[in-house]
Amino acid sequence: MYEKKVIPNLNCGLDLIGEVLYGKWKIRLLWFIHQGHKRPSELQRKIPDASRRVLNMQLNELEKHELITRKIYPVVPPKVEYSLTEFGKTVIPVIAALGQWGDEHEDRLRDVILKSL
Amino acid sequence: MYEKKVIPNLNCGLDLIGEVLYGKWKIRLLWFIHQGHKRPSELQRKIPDASRRVLNMQLNELEKHELITRKIYPVVPPKVEYSLTEFGKTVIPVIAALGQWGDEHEDRLRDVILKSL
DNA sequence: TCAGATAGGGATAAATTTCTCCCTATTGCA
DNA sequence: TGCAATAGGGAGAAATTTATCCCTATCTGA
């Protein structure tokens, strides 16, 4: 694993939430798990643009940050299921607020993003 | 400037808001501008951990995405003020929700983040 | 018997973001 | 006269994140 060389600052709420949600796919992972897509392979199919590797890495971080738990079923072929922890569930409304704002301003956002590319 | 080689996907609201808010300091910039810290030098003092260069770059992007406007006063030494656009103002409640969640779970977050380092 | 599904890690490359250092310009102040 | 404040861009390095490719293992079904 890559080891950080710069220590993050954890001064305010925005710093703190940033540390746990900042990652290209983390918010989406939480959202899909919330919607009931729990198995790694399902998540990978839901987010085909992300490489399997990064999804695993980000899932590991979410687990370390206690937002999700990972349950391994001792079967073959292997089966793993992720679930939101109670703590993780508390962040879902915030993610919903993000998504809602994005949806409400969909056309304008698409427009300004494409213009700025 | 660096030119993107991977086209972002803009399928859902989460993708869209991600495009405009994803950046190490963008959320904080919007928040401080919202609080009335409008001049670049003020913002730099508010966010001393960010290099001046990156703040300028992220401010430029926020402006391109129409979340803020930049007003130049023709005086010497130069004076510039950023303000939220009407569009930018609509995202403030979402940022407030992020910060509030971070504040509410401050202790736990600090704990899990430090443990995972 | 061989391909595919399942889960995931290691090594390495590529992409992206952020940082550092340097340069431009003008005014006021010591 | 020389330095600080103001605003900000260029070049190149460093840090960080994400992608690619390859390997392990076992069972099911064609």
From TrEMBL, chains A, B:
The keyword Transmembrane does not apply. GO terms for molecular function: DNA binding. InterPro entries: HTH_HxlR, WH-like_DNA-bd_sf, WH_DNA-bd_sf. Coiled coil: none annotated. Residues 12-110 form the HTH hxlR-type domain. Keywords: DNA-binding, Transcription, Transcription regulation. It comes from the Bacteria. PROSITE patterns: HTH_HXLR. Pfam families: HxlR. The keyword Transcription regulation applies. This is Transcriptional regulator, HxlR family.
